[in-house]
Amino acid sequence: MCTLEKRGSLFFLTLTGEDEHRLSPTLIDSILSILSQIKSQATRGSILITTSHGKFFSNGFDLAWAQASGTTSGARDRLHHMVESFKPVVAALLSLPMPTIAAVPGHAAAAGFLLALSHDYFLMRSDRGVLYMSEVDLGLTIPDYFTVIMRSKIGSAASRRDVLLTGTKIKGKEAVKMGIVDSAHDSAEGTLDAAVRLGEQLGQRKWNGEVYSEIRKSLYPEICGLLQLDHKPISIRPRL
């Protein structure tokens, strides 16, 4: 399902197994629980790296679980439940008191794409894997907070159009050109190695995590307002 490992100042949240890492209620709860653990253990210099095993980072919500309800209204209710229960995961990442890095070694679709995009840094492999917002092809509308994250994190209107309105499947190097991904790497191992190097560099700065979190929230006021994340001023003695 997912695991937590700590190596020095680096926390590794890994989606495990060889499946598509569909965001079922169980997996969503597991991720949220691990993020809570990480927050409680955070110190100066802590970094989160989120990654996965297998060919998928995450293929989005567990639509098979939704459809297993047996009725159209039941499937709609189950999908709505996943949409609502995923909000706290995004909120937790936006308020986590440390830099966050998504090391995406494979396909990231729909809510899986959003999970990666909710991190401060987004690294991806270039030889395999695509980013894909599948909703337009599946005939599903997009939750409001998904759209706000896209507006907050993807600066180009043309890129947002291609992602959301054409369902373009985007490989690593193209995602870098579109301003979605920070860097693309030759393999899953290379992607994770680059994330570790970046994490170690950021960790050396030993920023105050609470300050870092509040600055992040001030950077994305629209999504923080939608998720009802309070932005509070912090008065501390500055490091000169």
UniProtKB/TrEMBL annotation:
Pathway: Lipid metabolism; fatty acid beta-oxidation
Transmembrane portions of the chain: none
EC id: 5.3.3.8
GO cellular component, one term: peroxisome
One GO MF term attached to the UniProt entry: delta(3)-delta(2)-enoyl-CoA isomerase activity
Native source organism of the sequence: Quillaja saponaria (Soap bark tree)
Gene3D superfamilies: 2-enoyl-CoA Hydratase, Chain A, domain 1
Enzyme class of the recorded protein, top EC level: isomerase
Catalytic activity line of the entry: a (3E)-enoyl-CoA = a 4-saturated (2E)-enoyl-CoA; a (3Z)-enoyl-CoA = a 4-saturated (2E)-enoyl-CoA
Keywords on record: Isomerase, Lipid metabolism
GO biological process: fatty acid beta-oxidation
One Pfam family hit: ECH_1
Annotated protein name in UniProt: Delta(3)-Delta(2)-enoyl-CoA isomerase
Family, per entry: Belongs to the enoyl-CoA hydratase/isomerase family.
